[in-house]
Amino acid sequence: MLPDIVSAVRLQELDIRLTELSKEIASLPKHIAEIEKKLEAHQRKLDADRAALSANQKDRKKLEGDTQTHEQKISKLKDQMLLAKTNDQYKAFQHEIEFCDTEIRRSEDRILDLMAESEALDKNVKSAEAALKVEKAQVEAEKQQARERTEVDQKALNEGEAQRKSIITSMTPAVYKNYERIRSRRGAAVAEVIDSRCSVCHITVRPQHLQDLKHGEQVLFCESCQRILYYNLPQNFEDLGGPSASAMHT
Question: Domain 17-169, what fold?
Answer without folding.
Answer: Helix Hairpins (1.10.287)
